[in-house]
TrEMBL record:
Lineage: Eukaryota, Metazoa, Ecdysozoa, Arthropoda, Hexapoda
Keyword Lyase among record annotations: yes
Pathway terms, separated by semicolons: Amine and polyamine biosynthesis; putrescine biosynthesis via L-ornithine pathway; putrescine from L-ornithine: step 1/1
Assigned protein family: Belongs to the Orn/Lys/Arg decarboxylase class-II family.
Every Orn/DAP/Arg decarboxylase 2 N-terminal domain range: 36-220
Protein name: ornithine decarboxylase
Pfam families cross-referenced by the UniProt entry: Orn_Arg_deC_N (PF02784)
Domain of life: Eukaryota
Example GO biological process: putrescine biosynthetic process from arginine, via ornithine
Keywords, comma-separated and alphabetical: Lyase, Polyamine biosynthesis, Pyridoxal phosphate
One GO location term (cellular component): cytoplasm
GO MF annotations, alphabetized: ornithine decarboxylase activity
Enzyme class (EC, first level): lyase
Claim: Lyase is one of the keywords in the record: yes
Length: 220
């Protein structure tokens, strides 16, 4: 048996697993316990409760190969924030149509890699990014990232990414259309460790308003 893996009874608690592994392997360093059964259970729960919504797992959350390999087998999508993350999930068998390159400030090299591997879906939140994509990957399918912060979150990402939906969404959609680019949707990130579930209602409402705005421009 691989010394890096220990078989544990499925009814054991996390504390029992840690004690068992530490005692058996005489581990004195920090220990990371992966409960892959829990991932399968959560994926099945998602499918049961949200059958029309495809999950795209954020690789930066935990990029352990065992987790990513399992999610590939389960048919999950992947949210990648870098070229390295793209390379990792593609190397583990994820198909390009199950990947979103969710970084609004991409390097030219990573855009060219996405083009080479047919990862067409990617986010943007500014005109400079649109110009860059139009030059290097005009066939991309773009997702406008708007800012919509939770009122309470451990880490608010709106200060770094996401355009102002009131001020910037309309001109950015017009600019994308003038460049002949294909915009397919809207995204927002309420922040990591959000304690404000209600904020999703507001974010989705804004996204719906932008869909209507785009439709009026002739963008599907």
């Amino acid at each position: 048996m691989d010394p890096g893996y220990v078989l544990i009874d499925e009814h054991s608690s996390v504390e029992q697993m840690i004690r068992h592994i530490s005692k058996r392997a005489m581990i004195s360093e920090p220990l990371n316990v992966l409960n892959l059964d829990d991932i399968v259970a959560k994926h099945r729960l998602w499918q049961r409760k949200l059958p029309t919504v495809t999950p795209f797992y954020a690789v930066k959350c935990n990029s352990h190969p065992a987790i990513l390999r399992l999610l590939v087998a389960l048919g999950s999508g992947f949210d990648c924030a870098s070229k390295e993350e793209l390379e990792t999930v593609i190397g583990l068998g994820a198909t390009s149509n199950r990947i979103v390159y969710a970084n609004p400030n991409k390097s030219i090299g990573s855009i060219l890699y996405a083009k080479q591997t047919a990862v067409r879906r990617m986010t943007f939140d500014g005109a400079d990014e649109l110009n860059k994509i139009a030059k290097h990957f005009p066939e991309a399918e773009l997702i406008l990232r708007i800012r919509y912060d939770a009122r309470a979150a451990q880490l608010s990402l709106g200060r770094k990414f996401g355009c102002d939906p009131d001020r910037d969404a309309n001109p950015l959609l017009k600019h994308a259309k003038s460049l002949g680019l294909c915009v397919i949707g809207v995204s927002f990130h309420v922040g990591s460790g959000s304690m404000d579930a209600e904020c999703f209602y507001g974010g989705i409402k804004r996204a719906m308003e932008i869909f209507d705005m785009a439709s009026a421009m002739g963008i599907k």
